[in-house]
Amino acid sequence: MSDIRATEPEEAYKKRIGRYDHYWDMRTFSDARRKTSKPRPAPAKSRYALIVRRLIDERGRHTGDVIDIKSPQLLEILLSINDGVEGLNLGRSEPEISPQAMYYSYPGLLSRLKAAEKEPKDDGRMMLDIKAAIHVIEEDQGKILRDVQKLTTERKITFDLLWAIFRPNGFVYQHHAETNQDRILLGLRNGYDRRRDGVKYFEVHCNMIHDDGDHFGLARQNLVINEFRGERPLSDLDVCPLDCRPDRDALYSRAVELGKFFVSMPAHSYHEISGQAVRVDASGDLEKFYTSGRVMISPSAYRRFSDSNYNPGVRKPLARDSLMDDQYAIVTPVVFGFSFDRKSWGAFALSRLRPIDWDDDAFEALVLGDKQRNLIHALVREHVAASNQFDDVIKGKGRGLVGLLAGSPGCGKTLTAEAVAETTRRPLYAVSAGELGTTPEAVEGRLMRVLELAQMWDAVLLLDEAEVFLQRRSVSDVKRNALVSIFLRQLEYFQGILILTTNLPEHCDPAFESRIHFSVYYPMLDAAARRSIWSTFFVRAGISILDADLDRLSSYSINGREIKNAFSSATTIARANGSPQVTLQEIDVVLSVLKDWQLATRKQEIENGVVIV
C-alpha cells in the first residue's frame, strides 16, 4: 500500500476524483447519472482526472463499476502501463477502464509516481492525477490488495482472488499433465465461468509460440483452474503466475533453452524418447500413453495425417530467426509427431527428446552369409550416395531401392531392415500388410499415405508379411489381382528404400522380379547361427560366458526372435531379483518355460492331426 497522504496533506488529489451512479431512468427511459452519496465537494466535471461510475440496474442493484479517464496525462500513463493488454477501452473517444484493469495498473502507477517525485522539475498536475488513481484503487480495492499481499507472502491463494494474481502480459506457469513437463505461457486475460453442470471455474487465456504444421507463430491456449474452497498452496496448482514460483528463474532459463532447441529443429526431426505422451483416441478424447523408442517430430505430417484437432492453429505468424528470450520462453515444449514403437500419432515432451544412439555394428551382428551381407550393405550405401544421379526414362521412376527378404519367422529379416536403417542413419518405418487393409480401395489410399510419409521422413520402409501384395496373379482372383497391380504401380514411383518380407517367396508374381534389386533367403537357424546370436547378446551386455554354456544354449531349437525375447525376459527377472546383470540361471528358467510351451503346443497339434508323426 502507498503512503500518498503523507506527501499531500491537503489531499488535493481527492478533488480530482468524481463518483456517480449510472442508472436507468424509468421516467425518461434513458441512462442517467446521480452523484454517489459521499461527503465531499463537487467541483466542475472538467476538473476531474477520473470518474468512478457505479452501474445500477433497473431494480436498483449495484452490478459493477466503470472508471472514466478524463485526464489526458493519466490516460497516456495508463496506456503505457497497459501496452499490449487485450480488451481495454482506453482508446475510445471517451476512455474508460475497469476496476480490474485499474488494479493491475497499481504497481505501474506507484512506479510512475516514484519516478515523477525524483524529477527536479515535476509536473504538479500529473502527480495529482497519478495520486488520484492510486487513491481510487486503495479506497475501493484496499482489502483485496492487503489479502493478496498476505496470502502470496505465505504462497497461498483463494479461488475468488485468483484474478488478482494473474496479471495481463505476465508469464504463466503450467505443469502440462498430459506430457508430464513444465511450460511457460503468456497470460492475456482471465475470468470466471460456470459449466453446464453448475461447477465454477477460473480460466486464463494465454498465448504461446507453436508450429501448427502450416505456420510458426502465436497460438492461443486456455488454462483452467476448477473451483476450490478456502486457501490453497500455490504449489498445489497446476497453473499459477510464474512469479509465484520459488524456482522461477530456473523454470524461465529452462524454457528459453527448450524454446531455442524447438526453433532450431528441422521440419522433420528424428529423436529417441522415453516417457509419457498423449494422443487422441477413436472417440476424440485425449489418451495418455507411454512410449520408449524413436519418434519423428513432424508437425506438418501430424496436421495432414493424424485426424486430430488437438494441434492448435497459429493466429499470428512469426519469423523463427527474430525471437527474443521472452519469446523463446513461451515456445511450447509440446511437440507433435509419430511414435514408431507405438505406431501412433501423438504429442510428445520436447524436454525428453534425446539424440539417436545409432548402432554402427548392426550389420556385423546379422547372422547372414558374407556374400549376402556385403551385397545389401553395398547397395544401400551406394543408393544413399547416388540417389539423385539416376532417373528412369519417365521422370520420377526408378529411384527406389527395393529388397525382398524371405524366410520363416525369427530368422533375421526384420533385423536386416533395422541394420539398413542404422547404417543409413534413417528412421525405420515398419508397416504390416494387415495395417493397409484388404480391399483395393483401402489399400491404395493407405499405401499412398505410407509411401508419402516414408519419403517425407527419408525413412527405410519395412513392409512386413507382404505376401498378399506379392502373390502371383490369376484369372480367377480379381481382388488379389487388383491388390498386386496397385502395389506394382505405386512401387514404381517410390524413391526411397523399401524392404519387403515374406514367408512364401515361391508364390511371388513374376512382375516383381524386375522391380526388386536384391533378394535374400534366410534358412532356418542351425546351431552355429543360434550360437552366434546368443554370443552377440552376451557381448553387448558385457557378460562373459563359457564356450560350453554357449554350446548348450545353442542346442535349443528356437529362432532368433525367441532368443532375443528369452534374453530380455531373463534380464527383467535378474533386475527384479536385485542382480546387476543376467545369469545363466535366469536364462535357463525362461528357456524351461519356453520348452514346456513348445511341447504342449506340439502335443495339441498332434492330437488335432495337424502334425503327422
From TrEMBL:
Kindly list any coiled-coil regions of this protein: none
Listed Gene3D superfamilies: P-loop containing nucleotide triphosphate hydrolases (3.40.50.300)
Is Hydrolase there in the keyword field? yes
Q: Which residues form the AAA+ ATPase domain?
A: 399-525
- Cross-referenced SUPFAM superfamilies: P-loop containing nucleoside triphosphate hydrolases
GO MF terms listed in the record are:
ATP binding; ATP hydrolysis activity
* Matching Pfam families: AAA, DUF7025
Q: Name the domain of life this protein comes from.
A: Eukaryota
Provide the alphabetized UniProt keywords.
Answer: Hydrolase
Which protein, by its recorded name, is this?
p-loop containing nucleoside triphosphate hydrolase protein
**Organism from which the protein derives:** Daedalea quercina L-15889
